[in-house]
Design a protein that fits this description.
Shape: globular
Distance between the termini: 60 Å
CATH class of the largest domain: Alpha Beta
Strand content: 15-25%
Keywords: Oxidoreductase
Radius of gyration: 23 Å
Strand order of the largest sheet: 14-15-16-13-12-18-19
CATH architecture of the largest domain: 3-Layer(aba) Sandwich
CATH topology of the largest domain: Aldehyde Dehydrogenase, Chain A, domain 1
Protein name: Aldehyde dehydrogenase family protein
InterPro entries: Ald_DH/histidinol_DH, Ald_DH_C, Ald_DH_CS_CYS, Ald_DH_CS_GLU, Ald_DH_N, Aldehyde_DH_dom, LUC3-like
GO molecular function: oxidoreductase activity, acting on the aldehyde or oxo group of donors, NAD or NADP as acceptor
Structural class: alpha/beta
Family: Belongs to the aldehyde dehydrogenase family.
CATH superfamily of the largest domain: Aldehyde Dehydrogenase, Chain A, domain 1
Number of helices: 15
């Protein structure tokens, strides 16, 4: 069915967000408010699903699973590609709703929706085939991957649609059915996408329900859900892991990151400044794999910091619908207050220098000026903790060995990057970083065919690529003796 055109303000007044359960759109549950981070005020209400809706969704997903898994890979791919086409077409219509609830500039919201469609197509086009482990006089061993059953997907608020659609593509392409929960901070655009999905997927294959923490806890503990794919905070990820252990659910956890960039003494400073500034401030710094701290060789530190500060000061910050806006607000008050507390702590450190920003903007909403701070050491909270906001510390280091030790410190290990002109040297440094992805002369690129995930407390398992698809499946070894005679 066609999406509501949220470019028109009156459309929101007449649209009723509804859950998608068993092929039906339901407005069940008491309403809760959804806040516009550009104003700090509630602008819409959303129904909150409860135990009854969860039970109905799991039952629908379980009932739909046998027929869905029986479809060929090509048939499932075709359905997902149809869904991607409809989502891409509806992107300009849904983007204003996404901007309103998440805070990102309108063009970036439209990009998120269109990229969601691209990822669905790419993920559902990856090859999946049995693997012959051996075939010799001892017999043949073939590895066969089969779907798990019902998957529970829990998506975050920073890229509400994109990260949810990654789970949709991977779970459904591999022959599972899905119960998906968006963040209660940003449920509306995902429920608008659910309306698109209703007419494309067979009833029960994809179920999308808005709910709070209690609903998510119910999903992770539910015996009818065979796997949880969770993207969010480390603290919640640990709770998911503990809850899922009761039934030995399969889990994939994509959690926080305190990504470090190492800028070597031979780096192209302008290219590094441009790439790192974009990673630090895009989506208001609210990206798990964004650069969170920069270790720059002392020979290039001052120039690099000055150029990143210039780029931060040049960014136009404002609400999603202001002309030419490049960065919006922090998405919610709790995160806004956390980021400001980290900035205040950093400013109080001996030797700290604020080169750009350093404070909230004097306007309604959760706006923080793009901030660059130097002169800190690793004891500062801004360096030791993940800020998840538009603030970047730049630390001077004497050599790459010191930078590596400091980059590897801490409990997180999602991503990292190395910047320099000598490719072999950069690769050698990258191999010493304790992180799931190490980029060279770039930071934060997420590709459908490349497995993504973290080391240490940044996650468990991998998404994307054939490895990521296999995490939504169970491996079976078929072991056959040679035929007699």
């Amino acid at each position: 069915m066609p999406a509501t055109d949220f470019r028109q303000d009156e459309a929101l007044q007449h649209w009723q967000p509804r859950h998608l359960v068993g092929g039906e759109l339901l407005a069940a549950g008491a309403p809760f408010g959804v806040t516009d981070p550009s104003s700090g005020k509630v602008f819409a209400e959303c129904p909150e699903a409860g135990v009854e809706e969860l039970e109905r969704a799991v039952a629908a997903a379980r009932a739909a699973w046998p027929a869905w898994k029986a479809r060929s890979l090509e048939q499932r791919r075709a359905v997902l590609h149809d869904f991607a086409a409809v989502l891409e077409q509806a992107a300009p219509l849904i983007a204003p709703l996404l901007s309103r609830e998440q805070g990102k500039p309108l063009p970036q919201a439209e990009v998120e929706l269109k990229v969601s469609a691209i990822h669905i197509r790419h993920l559902s086009s990856l090859p999946l085939a049995d693997q012959t482990l051996r075939a010799d006089d001892r017999g043949a061993v073939v590895l066969n991957w089969r779907p798990l059953g019902v998957v529970g997907g829990i998506a975050p608020w920073n890229f509400p649609v994109a990260l949810a659609m990654h789970k949709v593509a991977q779970a459904l392409y591999t022959g599972n059915t899905l119960v998906l929960k968006p963040s209660p901070y940003t449920p509306l655009a995902t429920l608008a996408v659910a309306e698109l999905a209703q007419g494309i997927f067979p009833p029960g294959v994809l179920n999308i329900l808005a709910g709070g923490n209690a609903f998510g806890a119910g999903m992770t503990a539910h015996p009818g859900i065979d796997k949880i794919s969770f993207t969010g905070s480390v603290a919640t990820g640990k709770q998911v892991m503990q809850s899922a252990s009761a039934s030995l659910k399969r889990i994939t956890l994509e959690l926080g990151g305190n990504d470090a960039a190492i800028v070597l003494d031979d780096a192209d400073i302008e290219a590094a400044a441009a790439g790192l500034a974009r990673s630090a401030f895009y989506n208001c710094g609210q990206i798990c794999m964004a650069v969170k701290r920069i270790y720059a060789h002392h020979a290039v530190h001052d120039e690099l910091a000055a150029r990143i500060a210039e780029k931060a000061q040049a960014l136009k910050v404002g609400s999603a619908f202001e002309e030419g806006v490049e960065m919006g607000p922090v998405q919610n008050r709790m995160q806004y207050e956390k980021v400001l507390s980290l900035v205040d702590d950093a400013r109080s450190q001996p030797g700290a220098m604020v080169l750009a920003g350093g404070a909230a903007l004097d306007r309604p909403g959760y706006f923080i000026a793009p901030t660059v701070i130097t002169g800190l050491d690793d004891s500062a909270r801004l360096v030791a903790e993940e800020q998840f906001g538009p603030v970047i510390p730049i630390i001077s280091v004497p050599d790459e060995d010191d930078a590596i030790v400091r980059a590897n410190a801490g409990t997180l290990g999602l991503g990292g990057s190395v910047w320099g002109r000598d490719g072999a040297r950069c690769a050698a440094v990258a191999r010493r970083l304790d992180c799931g992805t190490a980029w060279i002369n770039r930071h934060g690129v997420n590709e459908s065919d490349v497995p993504f995930g973290g080391m240490k407390e940044s996650g468990y398992g991998r998404e994307h690529g054939v490895m990521g698809l296999h995490s939504y499946m169970e491996m079976q070894a078929i072991n056959a003796v040679p035929p007699s005679g």
